[in-house]
Amino acid sequence: MSAPQRISRSPSCVLTFDVEDWFQVENLRSLFPCGDWDRVPRRVAAATRTVLELLGEDRRPATFFVLGWVAEREPALIREIADRGHEVAAHGFGHVLPTQLTAAEFRDDILRARKVLEDLTGQRVSGYRAPSFSLPGDYLGILGECGFSYDSSLHPFSLHDRYAPLDGLGVPLRPGVFPIDGGMMELALPVERWWRVELPISGGGYFRLYPGQLFRRLARRAIRRDGHYVMYLHSWEFDPEFPRVRVPGFGYGFRHYNNLKRTLPRMRRLLAMMDRLGATCARADHFLEGVRRSAAAPARMDTQAQTPEHADGLAVSARLDDRGPS
Ligand SMILES: [Zn+2]
């Protein structure tokens, strides 16, 4: 397998959103066990529609990793996501960490989620992201056996106690994109590395924690370095008014509630910066298909790799001009 290569001039910005409600996160599990979820008023549809409206302003395609539990209760929302041209992918059914599931339980969880999503949209679900980026490496093969084409559960931030490392993926096709035996691919979240320490730069609570200008600078560095940028946020991070509860565990409450009002304005500024960089938003499945096609056409890649870099010094990436309907 060849090392990562440059294949076209336009960098890609892969926006991903985990569709779940504010009370379904792992840090609140002791307060809101799964059996109690139906007693809590849902806010996920309104929060996700805020994301859809934001993306619709400039017709930006994105990928939504949807919880099967949410899809069963909010079918109109899931159909709307698909009808607007976005990718509907799976976030498991009940938001149980794969590290807490046996292989058989994991298989049941992803198949159940996938069936709900495919029945609602009439479209194939090809992508998966584990809750809390907690996928054991030996479960990748199960995803492939169950018909998934890619996984996006690798967040290589070693200081987080729940993130699974997914070691041994081998040589990437390009930074953060790994081919996996059986035809699957892994789409990793980017980090900034300082000596032996990783700094998360791909979104979530870190997007709300860092000063906005610093986050944009780190994202800009990533897109120059890798030629693409993968970002993730949760639906509930666009809902600053969700109920306040006392979150058990040091720092978890701060992490959950910090700067929620800034998510939307900061996203607008980040997207404006991506526009200035000439980045094109792409669904994860389309981006990976472009990488796959380019990797299968080495002669064409070699020719294009000799073209000069973008005038402002951007590294270059797969061109995915897929600003679909939204
Ligand atoms: Zn989640």
**Mean pLDDT figure:** 87
Question: Which series of helices and strands comes N to C?
Answer: EHEHHEHEHEEEEEHHEHHEHH
Write the CATH architecture name.
Alpha-Beta Barrel
Q: Which term fits the overall shape?
A: globular
Helical residues, percent: 25-40%
In this entry the ligands are: zinc ion
Determine the CATH topology: TIM Barrel
Q: Report how far apart the termini are.
A: 37 Å
CATH superfamily: Glycoside hydrolase/deacetylase
Note the main attributes of this structure.
326 residues; alpha/beta; TIM Barrel; five-stranded parallel sheet; four-stranded mixed sheet; 11 helices; globular; disordered N terminus; binds zinc ion
Write the layout of secondary structure elements.
Layout: E1 12-19, H1 44-57, E2 63-66, H2 68-73, H3 75-83, E3 87-90, H4 103-121, E4 127-128, H5 140-145, E5 150-151, E6 177-180, E7 184-187, E8 191-194, E9 197-200, H6 205-209, H7 212-226, E10 228-234, H8 252-257, H9 263-276, E11 280-281, H10 284-295, H11 298-305
Parallel strand pairs: 1-2, 1-10, 1-11, 2-3, 4-5, 5-7
Antiparallel strand pairs: 6-7, 8-9
In short:
With 326 residues, this protein is an alpha/beta fold.
